[in-house]
Amino acid sequence: MSKIGFDVLAWSAGVSEDLLPIMDRLKNIGYDGVEFFIGAPDVSDYKRLGQHAKDIDLEVTAVTVVGPEENPIDPSPTVRAKAVERLKWIIDRCHDLNAEVLAGPTHSAFATFAQQAPQESEYDWSAEVLRKAGDYAAQTNLIITPEALNRFECYLCNSMEQLKHLLQKVNHPNVKGMFDTHHANIEEKKLDEAIHTIAPYLAHVHISENDRGTPGTGHIPWDEVFSTLAKSKYDGWYTIEGFTRNDVDFANSINVWREFAHPWDMAEKGFKFIQEMIQKHAV
Q1: Which Gene3D superfamilies would you find in this protein's record (predicted)?
Q2: Strand partners, 177
Q3: Which of 12, 20, 235, 279 is 20 to 30 A from residue 60's alpha carbon, by CA?
Q4: Are strands 99-104 and 59-63 parallel, antiparallel or unpaired?
Q5: Three-state SS for 178?
Q6: How large is the angle between the packed helices 263-280 and 222-231, nearest 10 degrees?
Q7: Residues 6 or more apart from 154 whose CB is under 8 A from it?
Q8: How many CB atoms are closer than 10 A to CB 265?
């Protein structure tokens, strides 16, 4: 059965006790789960949030990125080995959070570009790293879902066709795919065709408006998205990922220069919107 989640990046990329009342309110709205960004170094904070989520019966997913010093597609075997170790550390933090899914562009370093189109050797390197990460994730039944990002944030996987190509190389039961409506709005010609492409591998969905504001207020063709997901028998997470300037350092790092929506407006209206769309397109 599908579940609805909310990514707390709308408030903070950190993990601290400041998120506890936010988790409580998300639970009261009706959310099934909360998504945290994994990046902060303090291990105890992840355990504290994971325990609180368990205490209030809120499920957890996670999202992350890797940097150029741990790039899974770097030509250097030493750097790629660092990518494996970094992903293992991130997987450990998922365990601390009791997370069931790890989303994000784990296939390559965020906003790190080569002066060429993606090479087959880079897909091979990425697949090797993700396969090792999948082996490690299997110990706690975590599913890793690499994410295709738009062309301004990565180059290895911009489309569902590219992501499918990578996942076929990985060929691991704990490494599947995800679909983000914001990135697809930029990169895909037809969203229904993109969903059909990734459907056999799909394990996570980010519900993101075209401007990263409240879902349902922009020009994403939501009826097409939810109808196609329903026909594809998708029954995983529908997690809202919207951004604000609440966390200035994070906002600057992803080029968010203005406010698209208030976080609680996004959370309250977005939850109702997703409920309505799931019910409308139930098959």
Answers
A1: Divalent-metal-dependent TIM barrel enzymes
A2: 202
A3: 279
A4: parallel
A5: strand
A6: 50
A7: 105, 107, 108, 109, 110, 111, 112, 113
A8: 13
pLDDT for the residue 252: 87
CATH number at residue 255: 3.20.20.150
Q: Which of 110, 70, 68, 109 is nearest to 88 (CA)?
A: 70
In whole angstroms, give the CA distance from residue 253 to residue 5.
Answer: 24
Q: How far apart are CA 66 and CA 42, in angstroms?
A: 17
Q: Which of 116, 124, 114, 113 is nearest to 80 (CA)?
A: 124
In 138-256, alpha helices (H): 160-170, 181-187, 191-198, 222-231, 248-253
pTM of the entire structure?
Answer: 0.97
pLDDT of residue 278: 97
Phi, psi of 272 (to 5 degrees): -60, -40
- 69-75: average pLDDT: 98
How many CA atoms within 13 Å lie on the side-chain side of 149? 21
Longest CA–CA separation in the chain, Å: 50
User: What domain range is 176 assigned to?
Assistant: 3-280
* Distance set, CA 89 to CA 133, 137, 215 (Å): 10, 11, 32
Its sign, for the CA torsion 27, 259, 206, 35, is negative
257 neighbors 24 (Cβ within 8 angstroms) = no
Average pLDDT for the chain: 97
Number of folded domains in the chain?
1
Average pLDDT over residues 8-28: 96
CA 96 from centre of chain = 18
